[in-house]
Amino acid sequence: NWGGKVHGGIVMKWIDEAAYVCASRYCGNDAVAVFSGGVRFYRPLLIGHVVEVEARLVYTGTKGMHIAVHVRSGDPKGRGMNLTTYCLTVMVARDDAGNSVPVPAWVPVSEEDRRLHAHARDLLEIRGRAPGNRLPNHLVASWKSDTRHDC
């Protein structure tokens, strides 16, 4: 943009693309974003800086996957990278006809995995109670009746 910074919408596009790759590689199917929330822009991402986009699976339900995405950037002449943006995206696996399909259960291994998994479950509960910030009805209904939840 005119200030030498990457537009937030471009960064959000990178987040969506990274979440898609992470989800589809994990489940072996196509995936579609059904929710993105908690987008946090910590600092500007400068044009010309090196960019790293890391997408990480943090929770699975029966058909959905929560993907945490961190965007980092840094001066190409330096070695440091700074966190610039964070987002949690929910992706649902789908078949060739566009129908949602089950995904393999993901089990957290490390302490950080367990912390992120618990955070994703907390956010699910909050979204389930917030009428203006809900997942699609078929996912909410399934989440309430299934101990693994849809997303």
Automatic annotation (TrEMBL):
<dbReference type="InterPro" id="IPR040170">
    <property type="entry name" value="Cytosol_ACT"/>
</dbReference>
<dbReference type="Pfam" id="PF03061">
    <property type="entry name" value="4HBT"/>
</dbReference>
<comment type="similarity">
    <text>Belongs to the acyl coenzyme A hydrolase family.</text>
</comment>
<dbReference type="InterPro" id="IPR033120">
    <property type="entry name" value="HOTDOG_ACOT"/>
</dbReference>
<protein>
    <submittedName>
        <fullName>Acyl-CoA thioesterase</fullName>
    </submittedName>
</protein>
<feature type="domain" description="HotDog ACOT-type">
    <location>
        <begin position="1"/>
        <end position="97"/>
    </location>
</feature>
<dbReference type="GO" id="GO:0052816">
    <property type="term" value="F:long-chain fatty acyl-CoA hydrolase activity"/>
</dbReference>
<dbReference type="InterPro" id="IPR006683">
    <property type="entry name" value="Thioestr_dom"/>
</dbReference>
<keyword id="KW-0378">Hydrolase</keyword>
<dbReference type="GO" id="GO:0005829">
    <property type="term" value="C:cytosol"/>
</dbReference>
<dbReference type="InterPro" id="IPR029069">
    <property type="entry name" value="HotDog_dom_sf"/>
</dbReference>
<dbReference type="GO" id="GO:0006637">
    <property type="term" value="P:acyl-CoA metabolic process"/>
</dbReference>
